[in-house]
């Protein structure tokens, strides 16, 4: 019996081994792949430098072009910005409300530094006085202080008063010489603020004006409109009387500060005034509007204009060279009107 069990066990083991062998034979066998690899040699050092140079060549060229062509590019962008006359907000096309500058000839501007005795001469019919007789209004006038010896305080004082009264002058824009421009924007103000700002630091100017207005030569003032316009002949006499008081004060000051007196010609009476410079106007900083927008693309100009608070805003180049003066209040009014029209059209 034991022999039979032993035989059956051997047969079972044999059958299992035979079946496993058949599976191994019938299963497909994939080809055996043998790969031989060899460690690559490192590229030469000069090839690394060439690869690096290829990667940085274009950025370096671009930077060099920007450096070499910086000024022509800036001039081009300024020219494009200066020619732009229309700003768009969404679908609204709004014209820039650019104010018109007063065109003052050089003969008129000689008044700023001309010897007072020449202006007081009875035979002198100055262009400034001729301008008083001409019709029309001035929106703004640009006063270029140059490098500090282009305008006397006395001339700016009476200039501001007379142009406001006779020409309804709204604004005075102050410019000066800058590092790379002769018309760098300093600030803007009304003629009234310029008058009273100067009078705060140089009270003799207002005193001289009041005395000139009360001169018998002037006579009773004949006011012609709401801006205080005078008869041109009366205006001329007031200007001459004002300058006469400044060179021949009725009551000479007890203590004379030499820096408050300017002699414009040899052997001539000095005038009670000072030269106006950029530094001197810093004392009057509180009277100025200094908001600016840089001439660029429409969107940036709109954003800058909306952030401003002054009623009048200067449009300048990147170096603050003055381009034009924008009436911000008119701009906002036009924008609101067009938005209102759009909303009404949708209803």
Top keywords for this entry?
single chain; 347 residues; alpha/beta; 3-stranded mixed β-sheet; 13 helices; 10 strands; 48% helix; 12% strand; globular; disordered N terminus
Strand count: 10
N-to-C SSE series? HHHEEHHHEHEEHHHEEHEHEEH
Shape: globular
Distance between the termini: 111 Å
Mean pLDDT: 79
Q: Which consecutive residue ranges, at least 5 long each, have pLDDT under 50?
A: 1-39, 76-84
Proportion of beta-strand residues: 5-15%
* Oligomeric state as shown: single chain
Integer-rounded radius of gyration: 42 Å
| Global structural class | alpha/beta
> Main β-sheet, in a few words?
3 strands, mixed
Fraction of residues in helix: 40-55%
- Count of alpha/pi helices: 13
Strand order of the largest sheet: 3-4-5
In short:
The chain is of the alpha/beta class. It has 13 helices and 10 strands. 48% of the residues lie in helices and 12% in strands.
Describe the structure.
Helix 7 links the parallel strand 3 and strand 4. The strands form 4 sheets. Strands 3-4-5 form a 3-stranded mixed beta sheet. It has 13 helices and 10 strands. The termini are far apart. The protein is an alpha/beta fold. It is globular, with a radius of gyration of 42 Å.
């Amino acid at each position: 019996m034991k022999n039979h069990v032993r035989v059956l066990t051997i047969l079972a083991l044999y059958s299992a081994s035979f079946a496993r062998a058949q599976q191994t034979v019938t299963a497909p066998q994939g080809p055996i792949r043998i790969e031989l690899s060899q460690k690559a040699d490192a590229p030469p050092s000069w090839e690394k430098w060439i690869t690096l140079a290829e990667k940085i060549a274009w950025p370096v060229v671009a930077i060099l072009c920007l450096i070499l062509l910086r000024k022509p590019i800036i001039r081009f962008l300024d020219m494009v910005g200066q020619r732009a006359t229309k700003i768009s907000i969404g679908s609204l096309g709004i014209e820039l409300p650019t104010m018109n500058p007063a065109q003052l000839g050089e003969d008129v501007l000689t008044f700023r530094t001309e010897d007072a005795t020449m202006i007081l001469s009875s035979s002198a019919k100055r262009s400034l006085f001729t301008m008083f007789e001409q019709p029309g209004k001035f929106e703004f006038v640009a006063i270029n202080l140059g490098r500090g010896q282009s305008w006397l305080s006395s001339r700016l004082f009476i200039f501001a008063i007379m142009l406001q009264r006779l020409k309804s002058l709204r604004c005075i824009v102050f410019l000066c010489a800058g590092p790379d421009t002769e018309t760098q924007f300093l600030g803007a103000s009304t003629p009234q603020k310029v008058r009273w700002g100067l009078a705060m630091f140089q009270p003799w100017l207002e005193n001289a004006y009041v005395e000139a207005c009360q001169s018998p030569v002037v006579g009773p003032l004949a006011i012609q409109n709401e801006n205080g316009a005078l008869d041109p002949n009366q205006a001329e006499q007031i200007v001459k009387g004002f300058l006469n008081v400044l060179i021949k004060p009725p009551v000479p000051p007890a203590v004379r500060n030499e820096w408050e007196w300017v002699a414009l010609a040899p052997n001539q009476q000095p005038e009670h005034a000072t030269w106006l410079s950029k530094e001197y106007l810093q004392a009057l900083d509180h009277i100025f509007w200094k908001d600016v927008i840089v001439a660029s693309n429409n969107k940036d100009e709109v954003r800058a204009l909306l952030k401003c608070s002054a009623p009048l805003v200067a449009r300048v180049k990147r170096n603050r060279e003055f381009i034009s003066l924008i009436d911000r209040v008119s701009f906002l009014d036009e924008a609101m009107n067009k938005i209102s029209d759009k909303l009404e059209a949708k209803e």
